[in-house]
């Protein structure tokens, strides 16, 4: 079976074996808790990257909300209280944009750790927003500072998903991120594999990532984007495979 997932400019293909007459489901593999957690983390990156790729693009915003002393005292440094304050901010922002005839969509992550070292830091929020939200942000956040960066012009925002999730603690059954209900969904369809062997990205595309091909099971995963046309390099694929906004 080959499953194709399309999210924005990014196309993913997964090849896996399915016995005849069975429904396609994720295989249950007996493995150690560490390996299982690593697999869960990889799946989380893929899911988040698809949501970003399907909904955000060049010039959209990665917003960081920080707390000043008074704001931090209000939430008592508590992550759950901080999540509620982020929710209130997003509701205020949504109302302000609606008055201007604009729709708010977002992906939000709350963090209280440093993604590189794993050290505890003051709780803060990272939120992806459409570029149109920029004029309304400052008036809607009153508990500290706002730092806004524009999304890079790259075709695949998987590095942004990695950047965000590196700052999320592993808490069992806890949501790693929250989203607005109006996000576009990736397109997914399946077909039976016509031939054995590894998957290949089509001509005039750029391979962005892949898994090792498993000869025994035939399992393989690739992720690719269409090659940019002349004149599009600066807005779709600047910086090669790209990275998090800086």
Cα Rg: 20 Å
How many helical elements? 6
State the shape: globular
From the helix content, strand content and strand pairing, which structural class follows?
alpha+beta
Number of domains: 1
How far apart are the termini?
39 Å
Strand residue content: 15-25%
Largest sheet report: 5 strands, antiparallel
Quickly list its features:
246 residues, alpha+beta, 5-stranded antiparallel β-sheet, globular
Question: Secondary-structure map with pairings?
Answer:
Elements: E1 2-7, E2 10-15, H1 33-55, E3 61-65, H2 69-75, H3 79-99, E4 107-113, E5 120-129, H4 137-140, E6 146-150, H5 158-165, E7 178-179, E8 187-191, E9 205-210, E10 220-226, H6 233-236
Antiparallel strand pairs: 1-2, 1-8, 2-10, 3-5, 3-6, 4-5, 4-7, 9-10
């Amino acid at each position: 079976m080959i499953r194709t997932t399309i999210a924005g400019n990014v196309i993913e293909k997964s090849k896996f074996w399915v016995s005849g007459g069975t429904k396609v489901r994720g295989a249950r593999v007996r493995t150690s808790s560490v390996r299982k957690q690593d697999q869960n983390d990889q799946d989380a990156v893929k899911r988040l990257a698809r949501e970003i790729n399907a909904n955000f693009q060049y010039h959209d915003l990665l917003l960081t909300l920080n707390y000043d002393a008074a704001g931090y005292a209000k939430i008592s440094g508590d992550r759950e209280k901080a999540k509620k304050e982020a929710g209130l901010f997003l509701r205020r922002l949504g109302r302000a944009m609606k008055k201007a005839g604009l729709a708010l969509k977002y992906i939000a992550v709350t963090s209280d750790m440093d993604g590189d070292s794993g050290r505890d830091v003051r709780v803060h929020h990272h939120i992806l927003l459409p570029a149109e939200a920029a004029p309304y942000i400052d008036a809607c956040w009153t508990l500290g500072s706002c730092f806004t960066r524009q999304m890079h012009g790259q075709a695949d925002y998987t590095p942004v998903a990695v950047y965000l999730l590196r700052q999320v603690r592993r808490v069992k059954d806890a949501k790693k991120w929250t989203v607005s209900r109006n996000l576009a969904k990736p397109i997914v369809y399946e077909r039976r594999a016509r031939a054995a062997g590894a998957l290949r990205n089509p001509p005039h595309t750029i391979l962005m990532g892949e898994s090792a091909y498993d000869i025994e099971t035939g399992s393989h995963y690739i992720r690719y984007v269409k090659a940019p046309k002349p004149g599009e390099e600066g807005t779709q694929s600047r910086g090669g495979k790209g990275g998090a906004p800086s």
